[in-house]
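Archive entry: two folds, one per protein. Generate the first.
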Amino acid sequence: MEHVESTSYLLPLIGRKVRVFKGGPESKEGILLNVNADFLTLVTEENEIIYYQTMHSKTIVEDTRSQSQLSVNKKIKNKALKDKSFNSLLRQMVTKQVQINRGGPESLIGILVNLHEDFLTLQTENEGIIFFQIHHIKSISIVESEDSSNNKKEDSSSSTTSKKSSTNSSNKKKEEANSSVKALTFDVPIISAQYFKDLLNQYKHRWVTINRGGPESVEGVLAEVTNDYTTVIHHEKVFRIANYHIHNVSNTSKHDKNKQENSKKDDTNKSDNKEQSNSTDSKDNNQSNQKNNGDTQNKNNNKDSSEKEKNNKNNSKQNDRNGKSKDQNDKNKEKNGKENKGKNSSKDNKNNSDKKTALYYLLMNSLNQNLTDSINIKKNSL
């Protein structure tokens, strides 16, 4: 009941636009959907449902610009899990893919394999099995599949560029998780412990990593577990860590993680090199084909050019012949013209000569006649 009283001040904010945490990687803005005994439910503008433990929610900021209650998509509202306590809520998420915490070194994505009294078992792709103390979980959400994420995008309203950038970053992280879930195997070690202290005792004298990531990360051999603290030895250093402040523990090391990452990089590089080689071969083939096509084209062009040139020469020769034939015809016409002209001139001269001869004989006959007449006249007069 104390928890209900401690969160009762949040009840009037249900349906209002609020920001959980003022700043930092856990800070998210959205509509406050539910307030329960030890957790609250927030629906972000990207339609992501986040469950916050109220014991870590230091600040709740209300957006006074939205005076009235805001409505939440009915599909999203129905998808929100409801339960009396945070532990009971986690039990509904067993076998589902979840994201623990929003960001920072302690943000994890994996399959919630099992739930114990005060810790849970999470299987991740890169770091294997990680055991997380429940009271150190600030927030948790179910990682949707790609299809569900696409549906969320369709249902969501238009947003600013900064919102799109945040959505793209979140979706990228979830897509990586979605691609990894297919490769996860459920080869989970048998854990009989129900409490975190008993779990630590199971890993005594074994190599462990405590508080993975961040400045308080420690790895080494787990030497001793007491009611208050745990001792880890790494070479010449002895670390004593308060049990309450152990957020998570795993049976892997940075060396194993780096080795796995290097192996993945090698596989990626091999794949890239293979693709690059195939691309190079394809490029060479294309270049060779282009060269062959170019040579064939050049040959065809040269052939066409040669034939064209030959045709031009033939046409030129034919034109020369035609020109010569024309000149010869002109000469023949000129010669025939001169000959015809000479013939016509000779004929004209002959005709003129004949006319003159006829005229001469006519004149002579006329003269003789006149002379004869004159003689006769004279004789008669005598």
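Generate the second and append.
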Amino acid sequence: MRKKRMTKISQIWIGVLLIILSLLIGTIFFYMQAMSPYSRAKSDAIRLAKAKTPVKEVTNFEITTTSTTTYSLIGQDSKGEALGILMPAKGGEIKVVKLADNKSDLTEKTAALTLYDNKVAWQTKDMVLYAFDTGEKIKG
């Protein structure tokens, strides 16, 4: 019995599909490797915040950079009060602020909490800094 051979066009299609599949798998792998440091920093920061601060549930995580890099978390304590937790990426004192003490018009939806000269500030998307306790523009 004679075997049927694949036509040239079907061989080309199979080759093209295999190339596309390998590019897709490579892209997914590259993306996962690129996101690994962020994911690790997020999980470590949440674990540390739950262990060393009164926060019980974390709702937001940001990495901000001014003169230093800061991990910024927004969460709630057991009473339901909104808290901001700021921890330097290189280690150091963890600062906890009540978001009810915020004197500016900015919120966690419009800006990210950060540390600037060891003081709590809001950092907007266009890199302008506002003081958390007064709402005054600090830099930018």
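Annotation attached to the second fold: The mean pLDDT is 89. The two ends are 80 Å apart (CA to CA).
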